[in-house]
User: Fold these one by one.
Assistant:
Number 1:
Amino acid sequence: MMLLLAPLRMMAADVDSVYVSTPKPSAYDKRVLRYRKHWEALIPTQMVIQNAGNMGVVSVGMGWNYGKCCQWETHLLFGYIPEHQSTRGKLTMTLKENYIPWSIDLKRGWSIEPLQASIYLNTVYGHEFWKTQPNRYPDSYYDFLSTKFRLNVALGQRITWEVSCNEHKIAKSVSLFYEVGSCDLYIRSKFIDSSVPLKDVLGLSLGVVVQLL
Amino acid sequence: MAFISDTHGWYSDLRDEVDHLNGRWDVDFVIHCGDLTDTGTSKEYEWARDILHGLRYPYVALIGNHDYLGTGDQAYQVLYGPVDFSFIAGRIKFVCLNTNATEYDYMAAVPNFDFMEEEMTKDSARFDRTVVVMHAAPYSDQFNNNVCKAFRRYLDYFPGLMCCVYGHDHADLVSSIYNDDLLFYGIDCAEHRNYRIFTFTPYGYEVEQVYF
């Protein structure tokens, strides 16, 4: 009899009191949260358009910014080299890492990033290009890395316009940047013969970064 | 006439070479035996072209193996035309042959025997002697060495064949590669700062190696 009454008493007490406890997430819930958080980190936070830069006439792609002050950026770009006088147009792919250490606030939503330092690796698609020299050549015949992959470095600056919170439609902010860069082959040419004109070794590139998230 | 070769990368040396040639009085034209560039980029082609355009003589350039890298061979053809070509000067035909078979993985007609056959008889009324020019010599790492002997046979059909000239080896060697009476003149690279002057006379030719 006592055993039957006990639950009834407890029920009465529950009705009277305010229930304040928060449900404790189960191990499964935690795992799902963690899982989502990790995959969410892969959602691109930026959209990027860049011209030139040894990656074609125009490249488009996505980017991720991260770090304490979002000072790091990784861009994945696909570019197009028009046919010009060659046999066909070509596709390129670029993986680019940017470091933007400072941002100077100019008020009214504008800011300037006085330095954007980049290093990037790119590849061009086509049977003419090889990653390492094919077997038909004797060992270390062409004493350089590859005709398919280029390592590039660039320095530049950017200006950013922050879209105010109540005007958000597509983007949080839009940045325009320029950079001056070169690739391993051109730097090598300059080292072999310093008379190679510096202006020919360096290239100007312009671009837009749209901050989506 | 002057033969230069393998100028890739050494633009200052090429500039000096061009200046030195421009200072001579005994040159009618210049043949570059190939390897204008080091990695076949358009920029390297332009750098080499801009310097070579400073020559006060006409010049032709053969394609070298380095000029093929990437799509360099396409840039070469835009700038200099077909990879096999010939011209006649003073009743001597200069047959310039592409011999970079390794660049095609031996899958193309290199050397092009059809072209050679055509050139043996084409414009035969306008020439009595022949000089054959190539980038890589027979038995080198670029030549299709399976056809070295066939190539030698074909050379015999050129009217009044005087000699062969090649680059590629960065050496000034003169040898009879086939151990017969046909001489092959190697043209040194620009870095070694020398070139060769060939003076053709009605009775033969003289060769001078010039350092600058």
Number 2:
Amino acid sequence: MPHLPPFQRFLDTQRDDVLRFLVAAVGRHDADDAFQETFLSALRAYERLQPDSNLRAWVLTIAHRKALDIHRARARRPVPVPELDDRAAAPGGEPAADDDAAQGDHWERVRLLPPRQRAVLTLRYAANLTHGEIAVALNCSTEAARRAASDGLKTLREELPDVPASA
Amino acid sequence: MSLHPPDLHPGEAAALAARTASRAAGEGVAEVAYARVDGPVGRLVAIATPRGLVRLAYELENGGLDSVLDVIARRLSPRIVEAPASLDNVRRELDEYFAGRRREFDVPLDWGLVGSGFARRVLEAAIAIPFGATSTYRAVAAAAGSPNGYRAAGNALGANPIPIVVPCHRVLASTGGLGGYTGGLERKSLLLGIEGDPGGGQLALATDG
């Protein structure tokens, strides 16, 4: 009979993916708290989990809900949104000084997309979930997840260079 | 460049995970906390519940950390985190003991891996043997209420989940031999040496079959 791994091992295995996802989904400033809240929620629910569950998809679903909470809180209490860096957006403009800054711009723009597109793109490209896993996380069909990814990428391609051509 | 995962700073996720684990133990969300403790007997894994120290494992003799934690996850709870601060008192008392500055342990114990039967009475009889003294399997069996149960007493001591703190190393064979030990006879000798039995273990090793 399979057993759940000790929680610490689960935390050590998933921590990098969860943090990458949260940095992309809510930005570095809020990622620390969201990370701790994600794993504390996971720990509270841990024993109700079936041992053969997809642990990675499960914890990223929790992280997605924490990210959603943060976006809702921001919407209720608006703060100035960061402007896109012109250099990254302008065709033929100078390449951004370093990858970190350029990357930051891409994810900052993703965060401004409609909620489902934002969720699908962060889960797909920052956390590397499949469209099937994303559909389960968002409680929608795989087709709807695929479509949201495609719509989001289309918007990004109109504004940003080198965004992948397909979902 | 394309839409790829954000870069993490080296050690960033590990540090955040450590803070989360420590919070989980401190706020009582985790049910089991562990820490690794180094000493003259090698590396130990100390594991505690809110009730007390439930396991002190010789890491290598028990198949490594993963294997030790797997047993706890199965038998107690999988809600286990590494939280060294939660085991500060255990580490301090062990350090003092190894340095010869402590004769008795004061940390509370959790008998969750032992139950309440004969095995528990045997281990409590072992606790009653003072620092620097020794007893025999037969005497411990008698103290636990079963004078003829010395084999069962030996098994209970061999399965002691909290060695050193529950001093099963003070129980020797009636012939004067060392008997057995969960951490290997060299460690039994070493612990008896710390307690002021210089070389006694060596002699016993030579005479015990």
Number 3:
Amino acid sequence: MEITVTINGQARTSDVQPRKLLVDYIRSDAELTGTHIGCDTTSCGACTVLLDGVPVKSCTVFAVQANGKSITTVEGLRQNGQLHPIQEAFKEHHGLQCGFCTPAMMLVGTALLDKNPDPSEDDVRWAISGNICRCTGYVNIVKSIQGAGKAIQAQASGQAS
Amino acid sequence: MTTTHDQLSTSVEVGGIGHSVRRAEDARFIQGAGNYLDDVKLPGMLHMAILRSPVAHAKILSIDTADALALPGVVAVITGADLEGYNLAWMPTLSGDTQAVLATDKVRFQGQEVAAVIAEDPYTAEDALALIFVDYDDLPAVTNPRQAMAEGAPVIRDDKEGKTDNSVYHWEAGDKELTDRAFAEADLVVSLDTHYPRSHPAPLETCGAVADVNPATGKATIYLTSQAPHAHRTLFALVAGLPEQNIRIISPDIGGGFGNKVPIYPGYVVATAASLVIGKPVKWVETRTENLISTGFARDYHMHGELAVSKEGRILGMRTHLWSDQGAFYADAQPTKFRAGLFHICTGSYDFPAAHVVADGAYTNKAPGGVAYRCSFRVTEASYIIERLAQNAAYELGMDPAEFRMKNFIRPEQFPYHSPTGFVYDSGDYHTALQKALDAVDYPNLLKEQEEARKQGRYLGIGIASFTEVVGAGNSRDYDIAGLKMFDSAELRIHPTGKAILKLGVKSQGQGHETTFAQIVANELGIPVTDIAVIEGDTDNTPYGLGTYASRSTPVGGAATAVIARQLREKARRLAAHLLEASDEDLEWEPGRFYIKGAPEKGVTIQDVAFAAYTNMPDGMEPGLEGVHYYDPPNMTYPFGSYVVVVEVDPETGVWEVERMIAVDDCGVRINPMIVEGQITGGLTEGFAKANMQWITFDNDGNCIGSNFMDYLIPTAWETPRFELDETVTPSPHHPIGAKGVGESATVGSPAAYVNAVIDALRPFGITNIDMPVLPHRVWSAIREAQAR
């Protein structure tokens, strides 16, 4: 079946099997391998992408369900050659170790910050509670997302003045 | 963290030891540009899926693959009978046993590999699995080691000639006679029976392989989720009979290992055999369920422990007997001469003369493995039993558990300390670490608070664990994996422009080697970390090493790095003397620069020297500035720490919440404090997971309950406690930079602290033990049973 999906701002039309999972479409057809597969059962969140700005676990969405919609993956975070503040923050606050959960954690983080620019620790922990990290104990992931929020606010007020 | 900063000898720009340098590897990971196993895509690549046994124990009567083979897109279906033709139906394990690659005679655990499909795409491969028909004749399943050792139990390993029971090994350590005497003299004997449950490392990335055997050259390039690529190359050569120079193992970015990626799994072997026969690359990536039911389980020790104690509160001796559930194949990844790993470090942080350990391993109808899940060869189980016994002993003596520990700790002046089971602890200061943790919670006031809370019907508990680890294998006299001695290596090359490349035999799975190992070189040579590239995981392009597990990278690979850097510095000194027209002895070194004694303005930088090594060396000197060092450590290192946990238990529901978690760790010199703390918070979370929720269990038929992340519970950010970290620094006296290894301390030390806290909370009920995971229903039942007594 033919679908058209906008991935990271670029429209892409392709013929896919109706049963193809969105994560496989992203990784194999679109060749964007920053989105990972960790559990196949919607439990770990490693495959999270933004579908029309909302985090979804792409192992439990069919590619055809994304027809006509817009997807952001980790590869879409960097804009105009500049890292997104959340990418900078994950590095600065040591928010990653093996890096496997990181793309999804950053995307969930940006979705949270869009709604809540200055989240509390509990806000962040709740927002990422659908995403498992086996390395960090989450401490620095929380710091990274909060740090990114502050950086985005500082940037915005800098531009306003 | 002043202790670490005191040792800084390089500037922030150079970024040597003690600086929290931001990680080099992050640049690719934060942009989704990591290259994990499943990201490897080769031209013409085929995909493999594995058919697994649905039952725990059965004879295979027949396997019919015709329908699967007829499915369009299927290239091949492989069974054990096919592999027998290549002598590959069985393979050796890391513990000298054999393991079925694809089952031929029987299946011996649920999830065992029975057949493999090779297809043009992964969906077709999965479809074809449903078209393979296997006729099984069920046999009774054995699901625990005591049942396995009982008279008349079905013999699981009837493939082994003359095998009439399910015993894997009987092993002892320590001095039985001396220990019996200690117990005879004891005023009090405290005992504990507990099961350290089967668990799974479950790194977020599962295991997999992409095998690419070139039909023209015979060169086998095997991408592998491998924590030990060099050892795996040698084992591949021995198993498959391929010439070792024609095997290249590439371990790409690894999405967490924790011991899961140490063994060789049947899937790796089948994918390689398939590529060899078909002549195209073959990819196999586990599903999560395959990962949890078939690869690399950990723990599963049924333990009985006893402490002999004097009425004054001195430990006199210790006895333990453990029954190890090995699953269907004995596949522990551990040194050959220690059958129960390093469990005999179970005397822990305490000074007493007598200990005796008895270990019995048994086959069961469960997955093989016995990997050290984020620990150094069973030190986790050892630490758990002694720390649980110490708490119960204190209670029976009427002593405070902290005071009991302080009284029995090995004292700082006793190091190097010879333990009753044969270890030589390198250094430690246990009293200071525990005192720091107690001060952090204001222990005397906390005890009062607990007393008050009890009066109000609230159950606060305080748990302490003062652990000692043994990490950094080996020395080569005592430690090996499958006969390969446990040394490690570093090759350092300094280019003419003063930039360096460091190649290692170890392999990061998230620990940050590309940063910390560069920091060691920066510290020794004054070359900025940003000028140093670190390469690992490609056996064609790195020196031989045993890999990364058991917290051995820094103790062994880190030592190799420091030594080779120092050797190059000595050559650099001779070059500098040549450039400065001085003699070697007249030169002084400061990080990054040689200068003439008494004339600090007359000097040359390491970069000047590197250039001269290729452009202006003295007559007779070998050109270049590079070298390789293989480091055989003189001893293990012994990280330690004290953890204090405060919990509150709700007696109505059995739910317990962590109020505080204080972790004081001593891993010797900290190369990168930021990374060290990240390792500790990760380990504390895994320790909490084991104490609170995470286990792999089975029903009586051997069905795995815990085959996905909805049944095998892993803490999210919401359940994970908040941690408070502190440190002491007691350098290892034998390590070139005084470091000890830290990746596993918190997983090893913390489970007992959490459990001790819950048991402490339940003291008013007279409860002395609840096995891990301390699930709410277990707590609730224990309270109800206690109230009924």
Number 4:
Amino acid sequence: MIELRELTKRYKDRTAVDGVTVTVPAGVVTALLGPNGAGKSTAMRIVLGLDRPTSGTALIGGRRYAELRKPLRLVGAHLDAGAFHPRRTGRSGLLAQARYNGLPRSRVEAVIDAVGLGAVAGKRAGTYSLGMAQRLGIAGAMLGDPGTVILDEPVNGLDADGVRWVRGLLRRWAGEGRTVLISSHLMSEVALIADRVVVLGQGRLLADATTADFTAGQEVAVEVAAADRESFRLLAAALGGHGERVGADRLRVRGLDAATVGRRAQQAGAVLRELRADAPGLEEAYVRLVEGEAEFAAVAA
Amino acid sequence: MRNALSAEWGKTWSLRSPWFCVLAAVLLTAGTASTLANDFVHDIGQGRLPRSETLAVLEPLVPAMQLGQLALVALAMLVVTAEYGTGVIRSTFLALPQRRAVLVAKTTVAAVVGFGAGLGSAAAGWAVVAAQLGGHGRPGAPIPACLRLAVVAMLACVFTVAVGFLLRSAAGTLTTMFVLLVGLQVLAPRIGEYLPAGAAVAFAAGDGVRHLLVLAAWTAAAQLAAGLLLVRRDA
């Protein structure tokens, strides 16, 4: 279990993490979500004792990371693909990490096999592709067979096979009762992996829920298209403030379900050529949540 | 600490550059010492110096070692700055979050390598100079002299690890160490003997243990500053 309590990290000119309180439970995959610059990586670095919080605490299993002895046996982390020296072989990089915590050489070979790097472990890490570097980093996180795993953007740079592999790995870890925290800026990949989502925007906690709850609260977006100009006029009048024109003969409806829209169209005598209700998506929920929160909001051209 | 030392030792020698640094230290020291000794013998051959003139073996060896140990300083620097440059330092702190233990482990590795390679360089330089001077050489006491040079190289490496943690960049660390160990010698001895370069040279030349204490005090101050700053800074 990972606990953040009133966690704040301020730099000179900006606040990267702003009073975040959240608990990441064991036995499920939790995704830390947010646009670039939302504070995900900073929060992870504080949890891992790399950055000092301005105020608040971050605990893993009730203890601060800096207090842990032989931490790799408790927490496995992979923050970025540059965690290994490019001119050291993958194997010797892992071996150095293992030695710090008194882990046997056999663990190094075991994790190399587990991530499928056996053929290139004797090559310098600098020659690895991004996908191989990710696998090496994940191997590093697995070294001590830890009960808590923290991975920053774990599927970045992986091919389709690799993404499937990571998904399976995370599911298995969670199934074994481990605490699994990943970060991502891609909603679509998280929807397939995570049981829980924690959404950050400009350092503040925007949501902390199960993936199901996160999407359930979202209203269904209905789109309706009229068959002709007269029908469109009648339809727009019937829907009033609920409709928003999104095309020549097309309205996006908020606050009414598809059946109500159809009934009102019928009563008004409007002929429709399309009536569609979009399933509530994680993507949509997420986009709405972070809209206006994005630090570098796009400027309309 | 045994785990940390074994990790740091293994990390150091799993790269190629430290091997080059050790080789460079030996070759630079022996080569420079040889050139200086050769100049002396040449001057006698040319009649610019009387035939009876002699030179202490240590005399050309001290400046030669001052140059050669810069390769060992580079090695000690790489132990720290290569990790900051590549981001490996974060992996290191993840495995060993007690950062002062990381400082101690890296310092110990640098000290052992600095002393060992320093002793090797000094011995090689001594042998070359003694052979070249032949009858014109005043041998003195080779073992204490080489040990003093090795101790200076060791402290230079310990100093460098501290400066590496303080500055975190290779260029800054190397420049700083060059100024501290060589550049400051341009100052008048009255002031210079209290600064690292002058103290190192004076101790190596056999002018007394108090010079060693001056160098050690500077090194300790840098280590202390590194230890204090290290736990406060974000990695």
